[in-house]
Amino acid sequence: MNAAELVKQYQAGIKDFSGVDLVGITIKNTDLCQIIFSQAILIEADFTKTNLSNANFCLALLNMSNLSEAILTKANFKSATLSSALLYKVSCGQAQLQNANLQEAILKRAFLRDANLSQANLISADLSQANLIDANLAGANLTGANLANTFLQGANLLNANLTGVNLDQAVLIGATMPDGKVHQ
What we know:
- The protein is largely without helices or strands.
- It has 2 domains: 1-96, Pectate Lyase C-like; 107-184, Pectate Lyase C-like (3 Solenoid).
- It contains 1 helix and no strands.
- It is elongated.
């Protein structure tokens, strides 16, 4: 299936593309709200500026994909693999990213307010200048991640691994730290 066929099927009312192999597909500036890509293979896919709000990417493979400036509000990425993915300026408010693999992903300037990243793998991820206000990062592995200039007010970092994390100029007021203490 190519991009044109997928968009045509979606516009005809078909939203479930679970398990499809769409390696390298390019779909930009398109509305794909509520699409289901559960367990889909989307390695090196390009969804730049695409509206994927309320989409389901549960267990999907999105390694090295480009989701820059995409709208992913309330999207489900539970246990999805997004290693080395580009999510620059992505809008992921209230997204579900529990147990997601975001190792070495670029989430610079991402909007992740109220997102659930509990138990996520964020090793060496770039979250600089991201909005993580009230985000849940409990148990997340942030080893070597870049959180410089990140907004973490009210975020939950309980039991998160912050080994080697860059927190320069990060705003942590009201954040629950790994040891359970609330940052003042």
